[in-house]
């Protein structure tokens, strides 16, 4: 019997590593000055925008932290966030967020207001700096941003995402603007297709790429509190499809491609897949044990 359990455990672990499950996370940032509600970390179904609360986003001392952008480090699986300039504590800072609880560890000051962040597949973290209308790279050990290219006048909040081929996309001209490309060699934006069919004309808070090549974004009406929608954007045409309503004041989203190992798999809450894998693993283990037992019996 012990052999069967061991076989089931090995099967479960290898299967958890093999399953490529995209999971979306989002944060809400209260917009009302008088709103005492904390910022919240959610898990979101990218097919319907249905959300499940994980917990409030809190610093080491239990203080509330407002997160404006999220990005998943492809090398370590850590979820990084950049805090809003409106955060009651640690504004304009880089943080690491616990996916299971929402607790945040402070890395350091970014040195500017970053409205969104994204990793490339080499592990470089990029941030969009609204006040200077330019891209920056962020040091993961200190949190400090290094601007790229020439600064410009302050613009819209801006959102950034990076596709599987490490092409960088920016929406820095609002929900009625365009989805542009960023050239690392020149530090300049190249104008892309105009956005078509965005439900709210007010703005885009953040973006994230799926492995299928679709961009997901948070479209907001910038009210207080803000109504937020999850939308899909075709990066080649700029066409927009509404997915569904997100929790009010949703600010940042990120798609995490796949669990990295069993503990990460369990943390990210893949319950239905886990149940199926456990049953299949136990069945295989039982078959192996029965076969070994029959082989040992004298004929």
Automatic annotation (TrEMBL):
Keywords: Membrane, Signal, Transmembrane, Transmembrane helix. It comes from the Bacteria. Gene3D superfamilies: YVTN repeat-like/Quinoprotein amine dehydrogenase. The keyword Membrane applies. The chain crosses the membrane at residues 271-290. The keyword Glycosyltransferase does not apply. Residues 1-18 form the signal peptide. The lineage of its organism: Bacteria, Pseudomonadati, Pseudomonadota, Betaproteobacteria, Nitrosomonadales. This is YncE family protein. InterPro entries: WD40/YVTN_repeat-like_dom_sf.
